[in-house]
Amino acid sequence: MSLHEECGVFGVWDPKGGCARTTYYGLYALQHRGQEACGIATTNDRELSYYKDVGLVGDVFDEQRLEELDGTMAVGHVRYATTGAGKRENAQPLTLKYVKGTLAVVHNGNLVNHDQLRRAYEYNGAIFQTTSDTEVIAYAIARERLTCPSVEEAVSRAVRQLKGAFSLIVMSPRKLIAARDPWGFRPLCMGRKGEAVYFASESCALDGVEAEYVREIEPGEIVVVEPPDEKNANTACSIRSIRTNCRGMSHMCIFEYIYFARSDSVICGQSVHEARRNAGRILARESPVEADLVIGVPDSGLDAAMGYAEASGIPYGEGFVKNRYIGRTFITPDQRSREQAVRIKLGALRSQVEGKRVVMIDDSIVRGTTSRAIISLLRQAGAREVHMRVSSPEFIAPCYFGTDIPDKEKLIACHHTCEEICALTGADSLAFLSLEGLRKIAPDARCGFCEGCFTEQYPIPREEIGQAAPGCK
Questions:
Q1: Is the pTM of this model over 0.90?
Q2: Is the pLDDT of residue 173 over 70?
Q3: What is the largest CA-CA distance in the chain?
């Protein structure tokens, strides 16, 4: 079993229009964060339009659809989920009409108090149409809006009720609002290009639409973009920051740097590419081995492999060819299918590995079945030795904040020693990055980190998480 990406969110305010197409390009750049479903909602003269479906961005949207959706504001979403998978109604943006107008909401993360909030709202008459916690967030905002003077104040009041990971973009008829949870689990940044304002999960999406990165949205911060008032009619828009929910703490998911984010993104001042190379360099110093070649498992293992080769002096090379036409949604209902999927997704380069002692770098081991299948590919291609090095520590605990790391029963490191995992995967040797090494991979990051899946110590106390299910919805 491999890990799955988070969701990806994108939003744009542009008085020149064309926001549906811009969002389309932004979502394309974020496709790595979710391949199950996608959607775009736009506002044009206060009229809300949207389209969403199961599938990849390029399959769901065509030229005609984008023309129909054109507007001066837009929000978009790419989705990965562990529950409600394959259901169109769970695709985002989540849109609603209520007494104050319309809302469109996109969300990346996972609420640990989702079930409690949902039950409380249902007992007060709420009727939910999806199993997504995003609908709970949208309902909370709409409910608060009935008794407060502005939609941004409604967002501020609503997010105080939420516990867990959430990076949100909310679109009302006039305003585009970005909000991030006070713990800062999930990334969210802002960009500009001329008069246009952008929000995105990663800076690579800003690059994709030729926008300039401005800054990260701070943990707990709410940023409001709206048309100028009469006093400032000459300005393109008004941008306001609301920091009443900021707590001065930050716990970015460390796995954004190891696996989730795209290599060309910069998160909280730290290049993802360099963080992964750092992981490889540290791993080489911690766990050296005599070998002829260093290779990485595509894609997130490649940068770490470069770092390992650099620090060890062992030549770096390509050991695999990846089938770019197979997404992470490829159907793998049982163990045999999962192992077969590896052979369809990856091919070993015999000309590179035959007769050689190979160091194979991967980002993680969850169940161990995928690692065993990949090592088997190298053996069949003639590799004399395969030494596996992992650019993260062992998973010993589930994630409750949006990462698809399952409960302990499914984590191989909870039941086997490193030596036993080595034997089960068929490697000649195996080593993981240490916790001390993990904490050194992102020296330029202006944030703290959540390491709960490696330490079982979470930013939110375990007793407050309650019975929340691991994974994401």
A1: yes
A2: yes
A3: 74
